[in-house]
C-alpha cells in the first residue's frame, strides 16, 4: 500500500504547489481524498490511472477541495469502465456534482454513486469491502467537514509447522485446511482448530487523512494507531489566533494531536498556507516535531510506502 501526495497547498494553487489531495493505492485499487483544482495534472505526472479510482472521498465543499472534480469526471467519461465510481462527502456534495454534470453537459458512460454522509458530526463507518473499511469523523471547520481513516482488516496469523508437528497433524492436505482457517478431524478422532497451529492475528495497516480543522479533541481517538497520518499544518504558532479564527490547525497543534492520539507511526504535513515559501515550511516541521518527532513535510507528488509494522511484505505491495 502506498500514498501519493497529489498536492500540499491550502486555499489556492501556486505554480509549484497543487491543492491538498492524497491518493491511496492498495492492491490495484485507488482511493482519492479531496480533489482540488488541477488534481488531474498531478495524477498524470505520477502516471496514475484515474480510471482505476474506485472511491473519491471529499472532506468538505470548500473550493480548494472540490474544484478538480468536474474535470476528473469529464475525463473519466472518455474511458471504458463498467464498475461504478463512488463519491462520498458531507451534505451538498451531491448537489455540487449533479449541478456540474447538468450545466457542463457531461455524458458519463458508467454509474456514479454519490453517498452523502447524512450525519457528518457522528464518527461512523462509511464504506466497507472485503479486506478494509473507511470511517469518517467530524472536523471543526467553518463549514461541515470530515476526516477519514482507511483501515485494513486484521489478517489470520501465520501457520506454524512446528506446532502442527508437535500435536501430530500429518503433513499434507490437512495442513492446507488449517491454513485456510478450517477445523480438521484426525484419524484418531481428535479435532484440531486452526488457532492451535497458527500465530496471533496480524494487524492491518491504517492511514488517516485530517484537514481542514481547528483543534478538536475527539479526532485523536479516530487517528490513533495510524501507520500514516496525513494532517493539516496550515500555520506557524505565531498565527495561532488567525488559525483558530479560520478554523485551521497550526503545525504545533497537529503535533499535539498526533502525540495525544498515540501509536502513530509517521505523520506527513499538508495544506500549507500560501504565505509560506517552500523554504519557510521547515518552521512548520520544527514546531510540529516539538511534539511529534516522526513528522515530515509532504511535498507535491511525494510517494510514501506504507509497510506492515513487522516489516513483512506481500505480493502486490512488495515493490
Ligand atoms: Zn482547505
Ligand atoms: Zn476549508
Question: Please, could you describe this protein's structure?
Answer:
This protein has 319 residues and is α/β, with parallel strands linked by helices. Helices cover 23% and strands 24% of the residues. The radius of gyration is 22 Å and the shape is globular. One zinc ion binds next to loops.
Short description:
The chain has helices at residues 39-45, 63-66, 69-76, 93-103, 161-166, 173-179, 219-223, 240-245, 251-261, 281-289, and strands at residues 2-7, 21-26, 29-33, 53-57, 85-89, 112-116, 124-129, 132-138, 146-152, 184-185, 191-192, 206-210, 228-232, 266-270, 295-297, 303-305.
Helices and strands in order, then pairings?
Layout: E1 2-7, E2 21-26, E3 29-33, H1 39-45, E4 53-57, H2 63-66, H3 69-76, E5 85-89, H4 93-103, E6 112-116, E7 124-129, E8 132-138, E9 146-152, H5 161-166, H6 173-179, E10 184-185, E11 191-192, E12 206-210, H7 219-223, E13 228-232, H8 240-245, H9 251-261, E14 266-270, H10 281-289, E15 295-297, E16 303-305
Parallel strand pairs: 3-4, 4-5, 5-6, 12-13, 13-14, 14-15
Antiparallel strand pairs: 1-2, 1-16, 2-3, 7-8, 8-9, 9-12, 10-11
Helix pairs in contact: 9-10
The structure holds zinc ion (ZN) (2 copies).
The site of one zinc ion has 4 residues, from loops.
